Amino acid sequence: DKKLRVYRKIHNAFMAFAANDSVLPFYRYSAERILSRHEGPMVAQLIGPKLLTLLHNAIEFPVLEEAAVLSPAVALDLLEGGGAALERFVAESRVPPAALNLCGSSITAGDLNDAQMAEVIDILSERPGCLGPGPEI
């Protein structure tokens, strides 16, 4: 039995910057430096979530929880019409998600297939409030 965990982390599916914000040029500079120095096979998410998490742990970016990440476990529960992961996601959400990172990498990893991901998208499109909190829209 897997223990369900909730993570409040930064991710790169949604980022917003003001025109005069110094973070974006610094992030670009850092990513370019890492890529120019990297040797060997590319590490998944090296200049995305891994770099952003490192920076976030040091300087704590503001995070908009309205841009959430949908784990494979929550997606599978959506397909099944409910389950512990979906219940935990809804219970732990501070705000209803306005945007979702559906983790396309979960298809590559074999957690979901293309048809399942398409069905998840259909469910979310038909019932946009199904991830709560609050009553379904």
Structural class, from secondary structure content?
mainly alpha
Total helix count?
6
Strand content: under 5%
Give the termini distance in whole angstroms.
Answer: 33 Å
* Uncertain residue ranges: none
How are strands sequenced across the largest beta sheet?
1-2
Radius of gyration: 17 Å
Shape: globular
What oligomeric state do the depicted chains represent? single chain
Largest sheet: 2 strands, parallel
What is the helix fraction of residues, given as a range?
Answer: 40-55%
Q: What order do the helices and strands follow?
A: HHEHHEHH
Written account of the structure:
Helix 3 crosses helix 6 (114-126). The chain contains 6 helices and 2 strands; from the N terminus they run ααβααβαα. By secondary structure, it is mostly helical.
Show the helix and strand layout:
Elements: H1 23-37, H2 46-59, E1 67-69, H3 72-80, H4 84-92, E2 99-101, H5 105-108, H6 114-126
Parallel strand pairs: 1-2
Record keyword descriptors for this entry.
mainly alpha, two-stranded parallel ribbon, 2 strands, globular
What would a concise description of this structure say?
The chain is mainly α and 137 residues long.
